[in-house]
Amino acid sequence: MKSVKVGLLGLGTVGGATVSVLQRNAEEIQRRAGRGIEIAIAAARDVSKPYSFDTSSIELSTDLQVVVDHPDVDVVVELIGGTDAALELVLQAIDNGKHVVTANKALIAKHGNEIFAAAQDKGVMVVFEAAVAGGIPIIKAIREGLAGNQIEWLAGIINGTGNFILTEMRDNGSDFADVLAEAQRLGYAEADPTFDVEGIDAAHKLTILASIAFGIPLQFEKCYTEGIGHITRDDVEYAEALGYRIKHLGVARRTEKGIELRVHPTMIPERCLIANVDGVMNAVLVKGDAVGPTLYYGAGAGGEPTASAVVADLVDVARMLTANPENRVPHLAFQPDGLADIPVLPIEEIETAYYLRMGVSDKPGVLAEVIRILAGQGIGIEVMLQKEPNDDALTVPVIIISHCVCEGQMDAAIGRIEALDAIQGKVTRIRLETLDA
User: What global pTM score does this model have?
Assistant: First the structure.
């Protein structure tokens, strides 16, 4: 049977690893796919440098457009990142009748609805397993393996950089800034780490997972996003003392009112399996009504782990090349006319428990006033701790764990607490999830 010809956009870390995996495992891949998969042409900024893989059978070009227009190419693999040029190239490839494999989470999260509509019109496939959680086959698991379930919620550590920082803060008692610098030195964080530490990267991935889990259109702009820069080593230590760990989670939940879609630091019980996922590793916990909770763990980034997902997508395309487009697995798990118009809730309407830390003047009556404010907003208290005074001996750290409450009520309570003369600075708030522990 004729081999599948691939045009590769990008020969960086993932692109080079994709070529290596295809060449190294060519026989195994052909046995799985039923036909060979070969790189016909690849484009990169510099094609004159030496590569660690064999390029003798690959046409090399510095022109990305040549790849998407190449007459022999069946599948275009987009690995250049970004959204502007990538969107233009992907849409052109689709218009040319070529299938597309991409690892670009920002592209799918922000422009996936447009891309999938174009692919539907042309009868081609767009597959994107590598866009979320690197080598973990989480998209295939939700889209196909859990197709008999109604997904109730999912929660994921889907950014390795943030997880590395919080792990180091816990294990070594380090400050955020020091661990961030170490992550940059080790290559886990970019020179500009905003996408990682502010949660934008995780929000791209969560948007995709939520769409597949709940059958809703991609709605990145409605995902609440909060970073980890305000988390202190004191917060990490207090959480540990209370039996919790702080993780930067993406959480998506189906409720009677709509879909919760949020990325933020989260306290979770240390007995949860996902609480023990450390370093740069990723993990996604998915709760289905029939199967119950399921956990998916592995490398969330890196050349070969991500290439593993890219090649798996190429195998899927090779298997389905001759299938009627109507019989293929839908891009977002649900048939295009089956996507639901379920609202994504604003953060003010979500309900969860909270960890609060505040600096309180060491004088009588202050805690009673704080309790009165919380009670006035209908907020119950599960735990209240008063820690040793700060170095200035003028303020005492007070830790409160609340019962489950609407975020809007907590917003109002925190605003009134911060307005008290006896409260120094801002109240630190970390949402708390038990994840059915």
Answer: 0.96
